Amino acid sequence: MTLTIDGQMVTVPAGTTIHKAAQQIGIDVPTICYHDACTSNALCRVCVVEVAGARLLAPACIAKVAEGMKVRTRSERVDRSRRTILEMLGSAVDLSDAPAIQEMAVEYRADSDRFADGERRASPVLDDNPMYVRDYSKCILCWRCVQVCAEDAQYTFAINFAGRGFETSIGTFFDKPMPETTCVFCGQCVGVCPTGALKPKREWLLEQGRALDEVLQETRVVRRKRRRS
Predict the structure, then answer these.
(1) Within-domain flag for 220
(2) In sequence order, what are the residues at sequence separation of 6 or more whose Cβ sits closer than 8 angstroms to the Cβ of residue 151?
(3) Phi-psi region of 94 (alpha: psi -120 to 50; beta: other; left: phi over 0)
(4) Domain that includes residue 177, residue range
(5) Pairing state of beta strands 159-162 and 169-172?
């Protein structure tokens, strides 16, 4: 199949996705939910591109190439779509541990205050095992962890989606603590998480220690100032 992406011609095997075809000629199409080790499901829609003659923007991670196809990976319509998605994500989820998404937000000039009145996902940190913690207030529901726990890698099926709509979350069956599930603590779910919603226990403890040190340091500074006054 021969097609044109951003004015460059490329020939790839039939069945190749637009995303892979673009990579072949050095064009980077941004992704969030996509991962090389996971099945593409086009959940985040950040990878959308504009295909000549198509009514809708196409998700590059699953859309297959066609002979003579003309694709634009950057256009006003594409940029506006990506910007809106990033703004909505930022309004609902804590992205403080997602540097790649933060960089995208800067590149696409996402307005962090556009949906300031929107509801945010809030979830307590689940610290129920010695290997990793789960902070679903940072979860963007990319499905990577569910996929590697299932057919894409581990075949353990310890976690899955729960709830509907805005209340959708990742969880265990009957909300059981992780040690009471089929989890084998392989760590693959932690490895593919793009936002820090799943984090190694040691890393999380070190962060908590640094945060505590900062609070103590600020307290000492305040006390010195009071004594001097």
Answers:
(1) no
(2) 39
(3) beta
(4) 132-201
(5) antiparallel
Same domain, 90 and 22: yes
Residue 33 lies in a domain: yes
Identify which of 19, 18, 21 has the alpha carbon closest to the alpha carbon of residue 10: 21
Question: Do 116 and 180 share a domain, yes or no?
Answer: no
C-alpha count within 13 angstroms, C-beta hemisphere, residue 159: 25
CB 115 within 8 A of CB 82: no
How many other β-carbons are positioned within 10 Å of the β-carbon of residue 187? 14
Distance, CA of 147 to CA of 155 (rounded, Å)? 9
52 and 104 within one domain: yes
Query: Could you give the 3-state DSSP secondary structure of residue 60?
Result: coil
Give a yes or no: residue 153 inside a domain.
yes
Q: pTM for the complete prediction? A: 0.83
Q: Are residues 11 and 111 in the same domain?
A: yes
- Domain tally for the chain? 2
pLDDT digits (tens, 9 = 90+) for 197-222: 999 998 888 887 776 666 667 666 66
What is the tens place of the pLDDT at every residue in 160-188? 988 888 888 999 999 999 999 999 999 99
Residue 161 pairs in a beta bridge with 170
What pLDDT is stored for residue 216 in this prediction? Answer: 61
102 pLDDT more than 80 = yes
For residue 106, the tally of other CB atoms under 10 A from its CB is: 9
